[in-house]
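User: Good morning. I'm curious how manganese (II) ion would be positioned relative to this chain. Could you predict the structure with it bound?
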Amino acid sequence: MEAARLLAEARDVTLLSHINPDADTLGSALAVGLVLHRRGARVRVSFAEPDVVPESLLSLDVAGLLVRPDEVPDEAELVVVMDTGSLQRLGKLADRVPKAKKGAVVIDHHVSNTRYGTVHVIDDRAEATALVALRVLDEMKAEIDEPVARCLYAGIVTDTRGFRNAGPEVHRIAARLLEAGVDAEGVTRPLMDEHPFGYLKMLSHVLGRAELDRNAAKGLGLVHATVTVDDAQGLRSEEVESVVDIVRSAEEAEVAAVFKELRPQYWSVSLRAVSEVDVRRVAQRLGGGGHRLAAGFTFEGTAERLLAELKEALES
Ligand code: 5GP
Ligand code: MN
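Assistant: Good morning! Here's the predicted structure, ligand included:
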């Protein structure tokens, strides 16, 4: 595998995650980064936005590999991009990809990946990028010990929503990671099950305003909720990002949408579907992307306009 060879030979590696990083993109980058760091390479892991590392992911960085985006060299040697379907999803770090002196390896599981690197390891059937990253590490004959396994497990458990959509092979891999010493509950609880008390108050406001439109999405139903800047005040991105996991439980709706106000008139939208609607195509119509049952896009304008455009995209 060309990617494994490039990584094994590299002396200086910059691993990049997408903006608003989740456990899959950062866990994959930190797992591969840790292996290369131990083999003596100079390694840095970064992402463009927000300014701080999500608190729930900090403990994955056991070797202190994370650096701020302005510390990423303008012309890096080898760049590795994790879990990122298109260059725009790297934000202001996107220009590091074409400038990389030894090229860019793209490791991903997005069906829509635009193949913007020089070497691509993409499996759109993989439930998480961490599974693709593990294949590369196995090809390199890397030792998967507990700190590396923990990073991979974090990506897998979150992208499969607690193994709900994981097939037998993923369970076999999870068993391997547990055998390496991963504490499943210890890793999962901060990522999926834990929030400050203020989260409950925020939910009560946000869910109190949620709406169900049974006629939307060609009659399959849409449930939607809005998290304003005020609602999110004093809370972490983890709290805002997990609202959709609750909104999507409305059984009358095939599609769930959460409109997250980043600043006045500027929204990041999370879309989820149960089984029938391909929300990636819906998000793509609105300039975003993602997976068939989990996708997103950004939108500039009023909440009313956003809802109207989303409903229209759900009809076509
Ligand atoms: P989330 O709702 O968790 O932020 O995102 C769900 C999935 O949608 C992510 O895995 C990502 O692939 C995709 N996604 C979210 N927001 C955007 C966006 O603004 N642009 C693109 N291209 N994909 C997005
Ligand atoms: Mn992913």
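The chain has two domains: 2-193, 197-315. The longest strand covers residues 255-263.
Let me know if you'd like a different ligand tried.
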